[in-house]
Design brief:
The structure holds two protein chains of two kinds. Chain A is 24% helix and 26% strand. Chain A is α/β, with parallel strands linked by helices. In chain A, the strands form seven sheets. Chain A has a five-stranded parallel β-sheet. Chain A has a five-stranded parallel β-sheet with strand order 9-16-10-11-12, covered by helices on one side. Chain B contains 24 helices and six strands. In chain B, helix 11 crosses helix 16 and helix 17 crosses helix 21. Classes of the chains: A alpha/beta, B mainly alpha. At the A-B interface, helix 2, helix 7, strand 21, helix 8 and helix 11 of A face helix 12, helix 22, helix 24, strand 4 and strand 5 of B.
Chain lengths: 450, 520
């Protein structure tokens, strides 16, 4: 009999695993369980539903007929616990589902840090489809929303409220937006972007408590400085943690997340985990053991599909990349560009005099080998940056060919010559000449030349 | 505030425009009758029975065109009967006759004040539209602003959208089949045609009126398009190009040619989109048009067979479909607010392939028959050519391209014709798919499957299906509007031309196990 793989969670990690198992093996019986929605949708697109850019239907990457066609069974329901001895999931209605192999891909849950009033109606995080629904209800007719916590979800929530002309106060604990992740220049660009959109951004501001109004709903936020900000809605976006509450009583070993080895195996045979809910026992140097990122979930799901179809494959934390959009400001990173430069690493950071445009290239001082690219307001070619990092190219080589990395739309102004000019002004003794202009042809030419 | 004023102005002007249809009513009084009798528009061979039949309507009046037009149609039917078998009024007689009668019998005070009324309706609507669009430059930062599109009653099939659709469908039916109903609108453009032709007695046909309105729509909505995408130089340049080709090539040059006694000719409108290019009357016109006529003939053939496919091989079909073409031009300006309404399902894609290639086959057969008939001097396919041309013109040229193509903007998106019907797009699509340097490159592994690209693809391409696998997007239907790349929040898509080798890629940057790069 074909083995039955049950995947708990229909997010990017679980669905990628399901799709790739089916790609590699026709027989395996696959069931995906979710309490959240009937079908896979793009979690990162939740904000666009609220903003009216898309409807929920648009965020589903596959047509509803896809699942039956690929014989991926879908089961809707909340799982109360995992019976590892009996190899079965137990649902909150008492029903069970037996598995041969289990993949836990349950994602994250929003953090709360025990603030007074954090459980009042009108206070919520934003992670799930249910959160979106409650935000829709909670923000009807409000005069002001307060967003607590300066992370990606925080800035997205601020943008969501702003899109409906709801005034937003944005409390950020750090002295500059996400200054624990971004270097000062980038962080300042984002501060400016937030303020330019009319958001009341409060840096270095911390939440003390949330106060209720006469109707028992959240009515005001009080900061540690004692300031009271009246509002009808409070978004608590102070990070997420692995969603593993239902595993408390199971034999599955957890810490902050579900502990897995390099093959994404838990301590229990035939139980695996992927995505946000995972904590790697051994993270790669410079990488975190819990990585709640879309791309990580996707890569883990894909890796796991191999292991589950007879080709045990270790999960590699490949070269880091990420991207986001802060209001209208786009950001991409390839490799390393941390908030503070590690010893022995130097940076070349170009900024436009007026516009929010930034190109940063980090490199080792000892051998000039490039270690990371970070761009804001400019798009760079993943393929090119990845290849240069893999090949250990020097700053000089990269600058000469920099045009080939530009991924901005046609007819956009190119700034690579200014980056090179900046370098030459710093190191006038051996000036670099920009060889490659933007575009695919430039990139292919530089591939052929190397 | 300014935006509200603009919208109010537009609405007032639009309601006024609608009101003009019936304003003043229609009457065949003595003055009108003598004008009818003296008009030089009636052909001699049926003039008398025609006048007899119309004469019976003398002294009658109607308050709306919906009473008047059926009455004159009935009169023409009567004339038909009186003439007996074999000599019947043709459709192409009825249309201008009806329009001429409606112009003469109209009691609207527009007469002699066409310019004023044109300004009060169409002119103020344009000003209102601009006042609504332009302040966004100062009110909000540049960037993608699709806030509330899905909640909009105008853009997401709400009652306003349905109303706009009904208006457009009605307008196209009137233009193609019953221009007499909109005689009062067509008259408004008399001053414009006089200005361009230099002939003080010139009268606008329904096609001049249509071209005038079409060009203005592209202009005003083109300005809106440029405001909406003002952060993107690709879209700014593309929109300027569209406006330029519509105003110059599709509108002004052909009218000036006519004023110079040359054939009406749109130098960028190529067969088979321009399906009458090889019709007998058209070929005769070129041959009788002197050196310029012969140039038009060769230019037209070269454009269809050589220039358009060749440029598509270098730049993709976009250079034509979203930079030059008039149908594309309207879709990219007036139709931009409706782009997300296109159907992205696999089923729609299947229908699209059958339909568009079916129309292409139909166009080739129709043109083949036309040419065989023409070159054999009427001997070959004598019975079939006329009906085939007529059916093509009716089904494809009028209903599909016009009534459905534009009228269905608010229901099925702005590229219904381009996607499901245009035979030129079908040819370009084949070039784009099999022999072209164009592709939309997917930027490695950066896609987050959010769906903005697919949602805002006017051609109904599920862009995300490719992007999330790291695949480049190469689809016959892609017109290269560039909006998928613009709405992408992660900088994943880039329209580009490059070597054909490796255009259809299969890898992404997902690293697996041993460090090898694996297909997603």
């Amino acid at each position: 009999m074909a083995q039955h793989v049950v995947i708990l969670g229909n997010g990017i990690a679980g669905i990628t695993a399901a799709r790739h198992i089916r790609k590699r093996c026709a027989e395996t019986r696959i069931t995906v369980v979710s309490g959240e929605t009937d079908h896979f949708f793009s979690r990162t697109a939740l904000m666009y539903i609220y903003m009216g850019h898309m409807k929920y239907e648009h965020t589903k990457p596959y047509e509803d007929s896809f699942w039956a066609k690929n014989r991926i069974e879908l089961r809707r329901g909340w799982v109360a616990k995992v019976d590892t001895a009996g190899k079965a999931l137990v649902f909150d209605d008492g029903s069970t589902l037996a598995y041969d192999s289990l993949v836990l891909a349950t994602g994250s849950a929003s953090n709360k840090f025990g603030w007074p009033g954090q459980d009042l109606p009108g206070v919520q995080g934003l992670y799930s489809y249910q959160d979106l629904e409650s935000m829709e209800a909670n923000t009807k007719g409000i005069q002001r929303g307060v967003v607590i916590g300066g992370g990606l979800i925080g800035i997205e929530t601020a943008e969501m409220l702003h899109s409906r002309d709801i005034p937003v106060t944005f409390l950020v604990r750090e002295p500059s937006w996400m200054s624990n992740v971004f270097p000062a220049e980038e962080s300042e660009l984002i501060n400016r972007e937030i303020r330019q959109n009319g958001i009341d951004l409060r840096l270095g501001a911390e939440l003390d408590r949330i106060e209720a109004g006469p109707d028992g709903r959240a009515a005001a936020v009080v900061t540690k400085d004692g300031e009271t900000i009246p509002c009808g809605f409070v978004a608590l976006t102070v990070g997420v943690h692995p969603n593993i509450g239902f595993l408390k009583e199971s034999e599955i070993e957890t810490d902050r997340g579900i502990l897995v080895d390099d093959h994404l195996r838990t301590n229990i045979p035939d139980v695996y985990a992927a995505g946000d809910c995972v904590q790697l026992r051994q993270a790669a140097p410079g990488r975190r053991p819990v990585e709640a990122v879309w791309y990580t979930g996707r890569a883990m799901g894909q890796t796991l599909a191999r292991t589950l179809t007879g080709e045990p494959t270790p999960y590699l934390q490949g070269r880091w990349f990420n991207s986001a959009k802060f209001f209208d400001l786009e950001w991409q990173i390839y490799g390393e560009a941390p908030a503070t430069l590690p010893d022995g690493v130097a940076t070349l950071c170009w900024q436009h005099a007026e516009k929010p445009l930034l190109i940063r290239i980090n490199y080792r001082e000892s051998d000039q080998v490039v270690t990371g690219f970070q761009v804001m307001g400019v798009r760079y070619r993943h393929d090119a940056c990845h290849r240069w990092l893999e090949d250990g190219r020097t700053l000089r080589y990269v600058l000469e060919n920099l045009g080939a990395a530009n991924f901005d739309p046609e007819f956009y102004r190119e700034y690579e010559s200014e980056v090179v000019a900046l370098y030459n002004s710093k190191f006038p003794e051996a000036p670099v000449q920009l060889k490659r202009r933007r575009g695919l042809t430039g990139w292919i030419r530089s591939l052929r030349a190397s | 505030m300014v935006r509200r004023t603009g919208m109010a102005l537009f609405l007032a002007a639009f309601i006024g425009f609608l009101g003009l249809l019936t304003y003043g009513g229609f009457e065949i009084d003595d003055a009108a009758w003598s004008e009818i009798e003296q008009s030089s528009r009636w052909q001699d061979w049926h003039k008398q029975p025609f006048l007899d039949a119309i004469g019976e309507l003398r002294g009658q009046s109607w308050s709306t065109p919906f009473g008047f037009v059926p009455a004159i149609n009935a009169a023409i039917d009567k004339a038909d009967e009186a003439m007996g078998d074999g000599v019947q009024f043709q459709k192409w007689d009825r249309q201008p006759y009806g329009l001429e009668l409606a112009r003469i019998a109209s009691k609207s005070p527009i007469g002699g004040r066409e310019g004023l009324f044109l300004f009060l309706t169409v002119g103020l609507a344009c000003i209102g539209g601009l006042l609504y669009a332009l302040p966004r430059i100062w009110l909000e930062p540049a960037g993608i602003k699709n806030n509330g599109v899905m909640f909009s009653k105008a853009k997401s099939r709400g009652w306003i959208g349905i109303g706009v659709g009904v208006f457009l469908i009605g307008l196209y039916i009137a233009l193609y089949f019953h221009p007499a109903y909109i005689a009062n609108w067509i008259r408004l453009t008399d001053p414009a045609t006089r200005l361009i032709s230099g002939n003080p007695d010139a009268r606008a046909s329904q096609w001049f009126f249509y071209g005038f309105l079409y060009t203005l729509s592209i202009l005003v909505m083109g300005v809106r398009m440029m405001v909406h995408y003002r952060h993107s130089r690709y879209h700014l340049l593309r929109t300027v190009s569209i406006i330029f080709f519509q105003t110059g090539f599709a509108f002004l040059i052909p009218e000036i040619l006519v004023a110079l006694n040359k054939p009406w000719f749109d130098f960028k409108n190529a067969w088979p989109l321009n399906y009458t290019f090889f019709h007998g009357w058209s070929l005769d016109q070129f041959q009788n048009g002197g050196a310029l006529g012969w140039f038009m003939l060769f230019w037209g053939i070269g454009l269809s067979l050589l220039l358009i496919p060749l440029l598509a091989a270098f730049f993709g079909k976009r250079w034509y479909c979203s930079w030059v073409c008039g149908c594309g031009g309207l879709a990219e300006t007036l139709g931009d607010p409706y782009r997300h309404l296109s159907d992205k399902s696999l089923k729609a894609w299947k229908i699209e392939r059958w339909l568009i290639h079916g129309v292409l086959v139909f166009a080739v057969i129709m043109t083949g028959a036309t040419l065989a008939n023409y070159l054999s001097e009427g001997k070959l396919l004598a019975e079939y050519t006329g009906p085939v041309q007529e059916w093509y013109g009716f089904l494809i040229g009028s209903i599909f391209a016009g009534v459905v193509g534009t009228g269905f903007y608010p229901f099925m998106g702005n590229r219904v014709w381009c996607r499901f019907g245009c035979p030129l797009a079908a040819i370009l699509g084949i070039v784009q798919k099999y022999k072209s340097r164009f592709r939309i490159t997917t930027n490695g592994g950066q896609c987050i499957s959010c769906g903005n690209c697919s949602t805002y693809c006017e051609m109904g391409i599920d862009v995300r299906a490719y992007a999330q696998r790291g695949q480049n997007i190469i689809r016959a239907s892609c017109v290269g509007c560039g909006v998928c790349a613009a709405v992408c929040p992660r900088g994943v898509l880039r329209l580009e031309n490059g070597p054909e080798e490796g255009r259809y890629n299969e890898v992404s940057l997902l690293q697996i196990g041993d460090g090898k790069i694996d297909a997603a």
